[in-house]
Structure formats: structure tokens, C-alpha cells
Amino acid sequence: MVSQDKQMTGKIRLYISEDLSEGRNCSLIKSQHHYLRNVMRCQSGEPILVFNGRDGEWLAEISQIDKKEAVIQVRSKTRPQSFTSDIHVLFAPVKKTRLDYMVQKATEMGATSLVPVMTQYTQKTRLNYERLKANMVEAAEQCNLLNVPELCEAINLEQALEKLDDATPARSLIFCDESAGPVLTKDSRDALEAIKNKPVAVLIGPEGGFSPAERQKLYARPDTLTISLGPRILRADTALVATLSLCQMTIGDWV
Question: Are the C-beta atoms of 202 and 88 separated by less than 8 Å?
Fold first, then answer.
């Protein structure tokens, strides 16, 4: 059994895909086995926290850890499952290090889905999905989150807009345009207020911005809300953080 002292000091958090319930035994994947045994030097009987994005957070005990595998037994629920604002992030991929940063920050700031979108000026076209997912999981584990966003396959901008148009329920698109003028005018505040507590998607463009044809398509959509991120041109990774901060502060779970 896990002592009360160990229950209170269990700070290692792991995201696992299996269902979680009291008494359930779960075998950990190879990377988690290595982390617990070789990095954290854990032993049998030690407590950890686990979550899967569905069943809340649970206190578990390491019941077996040796050269071959690590097994945990789920003990008791520490937090019920909670869900963040329904915000999808559509983003044009950038260079590796900055892309890692983008998916980490999107996870930390409550995005529910990440969609790589290929635009006319997108320079990076090959993505390491395993690396991106690992960055998202690590961010959730370290930041005490209960959810890891869905990571979708890359699609082009036209396909992304078609999916938004076909979505049920409808999902408004927030288009961050550097030429949109002042931040949060009365009209844009009213428009944001109208979509509060509704599904939304935010679109972050590539370093070169959007082409004239792409802008025309975005402005032609009746369910696109165009906002400015201020008087300065921002890099894509900075723009993502600024956009999600603005969204969470006005229509999300910071309100």
C-alpha cells in the first residue's frame, strides 16, 4: 500500500492512453519505463500521478519496475476530468525549434485541436508528428493539465476552410491579420462577444503571410472574424501565443 506521506508527495505525472479506474493495472510504454527507471530512479511502491484526457487524474503506485517493464496500479482519483474552451488552432508549420515551441504553448494555453495548414507561402512541408505529439504530452504533464490536444494530419488552406464550413456545430474562424487595424475595436469586441462559449478556430499564417488569393477567400467567408494583433509584425510562434491569450481573455476560460 502507498503511505499517506507518499500519496502527498507523488509529483511525477504521466499521460497514458489506457482507461483509468480504481484497481486497474497498466503497463507503461518504453519511453515512460525508461524515464521512471533510469532518469527518476523510481522503485516499486512509489506513487505517481496519471491522466488520459478522459477519466481525470489518478494517484497510482508503481507495482513493478525492472529491466523489462514498468507496471502501475491505479489507486484513487485526485481530480475529476475538466475540459477547456473549444478552440482549434490552424497553423502554418515553421522551422523545427519554433514549431516545437508552438505546439507546447498551444497545449499549455488550452487548445483542443492542432491542425497544420499548408498555405501558398508555407516553407516547411514535412512534419515529425511523433515529435510534435511528444512535445504536447510533455507540456501537459509538466503544466498540471488534464488534456492533450488532438494533433491532426496536415491539410491545405482550402481543405481547412471547407472543414470549417461543414462542421456541426458551426465553428467560427478568427483570422489574425496584420493589416486589420486597431486591436479590439468596439465592432470586434461585439463580434467576439457573439461567439463566446461557442466552438472557434484561430488561424495563424506563415512567416510570409497570406497570398492575395488566400486573403480573398478568408474575407469572403461569412463566419470569419478578422482581428489585429497590434501595430507590430509578429513571428508565427509569438502570434500564436498572442492570439490564444486574446481568445482566452475575451471568450475562453480566463473570463
Answer: yes
The alpha carbons of the chain give a radius of gyration, in whole angstroms, of 21
Sequence-ordered strand ranges (E) for the chain: 13-15, 25-27, 47-51, 57-65, 70-79, 87-91, 113-118, 150-151, 155-156, 172-176, 200-204, 224-227
**Is residue 221 a contact partner of residue 161, using CB atoms and an 8 Å limit?**
yes
- Collapsing DSSP to helix, strand or coil, 79 comes out as strand
- The residue with cell 482566452 is 248
CB 62 within 8 A of CB 14: no
Q: CA angle, corner 246, sides to 243 and 247, nearest 5?
A: 85
Residue in the block written with cell 506521506: 5
pLDDT under 50 in the chain at which residues?
1-10
Question: CA–CA separation, 218 vs 160, rounded Å?
Answer: 11
Q: Look at residue 231 in the predicted model and tell me its pLDDT.
A: 81
- Whether residue 200 contacts residue 172, with contact meaning beta carbons closer than 8 Å, is answered with yes
Cis peptide before 169 (omega within 30 of 0): yes
Residues 207-233: tens digit of each pLDDT: 888 999 999 999 888 889 988 888 888
Q: What does the angle CA 55 – CA 57 – CA 58 come to, to the nearest 5 degrees?
A: 100
